[in-house]
Amino acid sequence: MSKIFVDACFGKKTPYTPVWMMRQAGRYLPEYMKVRAEAGDFLSLCRDPKKACEVTLQPIDILGVDAAILFSDILVVPMEMGMELKFVKGEGPLFLSPIKSEEDLDRLCIEEAAKRLEYVYEAIRLIRGELEASKALIGFCGAPWTLATYMIEGKGTKTYALVKKLIYTNPKFMHKLLKKVTEVIKLYMENQIKSGVDAVMIFDSWAAALEEDAYFEFSWSYMKEISTFLKSRYPEIPVIMFPKGISGYLDRIDGEFDVFGVDWSTPIELAKEKLGDKYVLQGNMEPTRLYSKEAIKEGVEKIVKVMKNQRHIFNLGHGILPDIPVENAKYFINEVQTQTKI
Ligand code: CP3
């Protein structure tokens, strides 16, 4: 059965512009909070295929979005490579022993990590079994660069001091780490596809930490390696790239993939001008607009004016915030589906 989301990824005409939201399965939904409480904590929820399946499907039932995104986290990959991970309340993720030396790097496993992620593959099989055939399931991973920042810094950072110091003082070490992560991601994404995802998205949340040349050397090249690998084997599976905050570098974006994720700080007109002929665009309403219905309506109208019926998937320009009223999220989805109807 054809899926409006997959059709749109390949630039086919659709009856309206499909829409979903980054972080659509999350804390703003009371139903999510209930399942998370039952699981105990966030990582236990990620490791429990039945519960992960349940929260993945919640936004489909509650909001009527056109695609589900697998419930998991980008950081389960470095965790299963052998790094102990904790989510500290109010502070976010923490790796207890960040990578400091060649020995730390050599200890990280590749094939074994891809095997240990079996709970993700099982969740995908369960979700695909329950999800309506007309809705797509999106699998995902973090970009090697974004994962490497966490692996070196140990946690979120404002300055990226440790990981950027490595780029300029020991680029060989950095490339060795990025290569290793890339190898795991290739196996991981291939397994996600074999388990049933209909599309994949690569999140490069910390792209904007790098100056232009460094970005293309230390991040984009590895994202492209992954997309080329996947497109050569699975041409029917759309690949979505989401490098956040690099509006200044769009002239150098190239490679084999289908959809370019536009973040909220990049004017959609600019993305359309630079990339719209070559790639379908996804995005990019400012997520904070979701606090106000007027701001939502206006935000949707602005994007529709530029992109209506023109190779576009609607989304926010980054993840939904945890205290957004569910009613406003529903309003957003409905506005898009109505305003873009042919
Ligand atoms: O989009 C979805 O609904 C699917 C699930 C998903 C999560 N994380 C669940 C999650 C996805 C696609 C991610 C990706 C992710 N994780 C990224 C890339 C996207 C982005 O937002 O830039 C990054 C950088 C991470 C790392 C991460 N995970 C951080 C920094 C945090 C803490 C911040 C926060 O919101 O608490 C997480 C935790 C996390 N991942 C939560 C969820 C629902 C919140 C956990 C909870 O308290 O229940």
Draw up the topology in text:
Layout: H1 4-9, H2 30-39, H3 42-46, H4 49-63, E1 67-69, H5 76-80, E2 85-88, E3 92-95, H6 102-107, H7 111-116, H8 118-130, E4 136-142, H9 144-153, H10 161-169, H11 171-195, E5 199-204, H12 212-233, E6 239-243, E7 259-261, H13 268-275, E8 280-285, H14 293-307, E9 312-316, H15 326-339
Helix pairs in contact: 2-4, 4-8, 8-11, 9-11, 10-11, 11-12, 14-15
Bound molecules: coproporphyrinogen III.
Coproporphyrinogen III (CP3) is lined by residues 22-27, 36, 42, 69, 71, 73-75, 92-93, 140, 156, 203, 205, 319.
Walkthrough of the structure:
This protein is α/β, with parallel strands linked by helices. The protein has a single domain (4-339), classed as TIM Barrel (Alpha-Beta Barrel), CATH 3.20.20. Helices cover 49% and strands 13% of the residues. It is built from 15 helices and 9 strands. It has helices at 4-9, 30-39, 42-46, 49-63, 76-80, 102-107, 111-116, 118-130, 144-153, 161-169, 171-195, 212-233, 268-275, 293-307, 326-339; strands at residues 67-69, 85-88, 92-95, 136-142, 199-204, 239-243, 259-261, 280-285, 312-316. Strands 1-4-5-6-7-8-9 form a 7-stranded parallel β-sheet. A hairpin with a 3-residue loop joins strand 2 (85-88) and strand 3 (92-95). The relative contact order is 0.14. The mean pLDDT is 97. It binds coproporphyrinogen III.
